[in-house]
Structure formats: C-alpha cells, structure tokens
Give the backbone structure.
Amino acid sequence: GAVVSQHPSRVICKSGTSVKIECRSLDFQATTMFWYRQFPKQSLMLMATSNEGSKATYEQGVEKDKFLINHASLTLSTLTVTSAHPEDSSFYICSARRSTDTQYFGPGTRLTVL
Amino acid sequence: GNSVTQMEGPVTLSEEAFLTINCTYTATGYPSLFWYVQYPGEGLQLLLKATKADDKGSNKGFEATYRKETTSFHLEKGSVQVSDSAVYFCALMNSGNTPLVFGKGTRLSVIA
C-alpha cells in the first residue's frame, strides 16, 4: 500500500514557540492532503484540507493563523503550530489522497507543549 | 449531511471470540465506505473498503458488507486475536475531493 510519513513523530516544546510538522507521501503524488487532530480516546477531527499549490481550506473553528498549512509540492505538506500553548498539545495526523478514492494516513505526531 | 455512527466501546473479547462492530451511515449520494484501524500510538491504517452496494471488503480475516438498504457497514471477524486489540474507525467518503467522515471509533481489547 501507499506510504505516508510524518516528521517528527514526537515533539516537546515550550509555550510560545512554533512547531513545524512535515507530511510526505513517499511513493505517490498526492494532490490533496488532510490534517487531523486527535484528542485522547476520541475520534479524528478534520482541521483542514490542503490542495497542492493553493491555500488550505480550514474547518469551522480552526484558526488558520495559528495552524499554518503549506502544500508546496505533490509529496509534501507542512503544518506549523504557531505560538503553541499547552492546549495545543495533541496527536496530529496527516493523510494523503491519490487519484483513487483512498486516503492513506501518516503515523502521527505527538505534540506536547509545556 | 454526512455522518457515521458506530457502536460505542470499549469492547472486550476473549481470544477466538466472534467480533461484530456495528456501523451505520447517513449520506447524500452513494458514498464509499471504509474501516480503518489504529494501533496504540500509531496513525490509521486502511483495513478494508467497499465502493458500492453489496460489495464486501475483506482483509486479515475481517469483513464488512456495504448494505444500502440498511445503510450499514458492520465489521466482523470470526476469531479475534490479542493482536487485533486496537481502535476501529468506520468512515465514509462521498464522490469528489471530499474528506473522510469518521465515526467516533470503537476500542477493542482482546484478552488471552
């Protein structure tokens, strides 16, 4: 199956700093990538949809100035959590879609803000 | 709108027991249906999918049949193993470039 990687897998940062998470599709070109956030023992909350070369579409309630998404190429999307605070601590998961109807998920990034 | 409802967990079974996790959906049009599995500390992996009515998806002993008449996509496995312990998510996707819509997930624990 298709492979999607995320980096880093875990990150701990101080409050007020910014953190960048990378999502790469390793063996296919992804015209669309998605970013999700998962709280403990809960389902995935879609944050935004990212199409290569265009601005991301954010879900209602997600601050686009806080969660900056860049999709500069067909294999890379980045999520930057700006001025992170403890309430931003979460598990962030990206997914990528090929031309078929299947989304492939990355392994997730555990963000802890102290 | 589109939504997915799956049975609440946690579900605890003994090894070799039969598993059913119910999933029903509401959607406009004719969605594709998916089951994803999430092992502890990991991302989601596609377990199986079905793209049209009466299709059966299967993988690793798991099965689910797309039932349009009952708008369901129940996940079944005849004999679970300890290694099947994970969270299972039912999801749908309508045609076009729309994102997946997930159920809340069902945690399965299989004990030896």
Chain A touches chain B at residues 1, 4, 6, 31-32, 34, 41-44, 46, 49, 51, 93, 95, 97, 101-108, 110 (CB under 8 Å). Chain A has a mean pLDDT of 91. Chain A is about 0% helix and 55% strand.
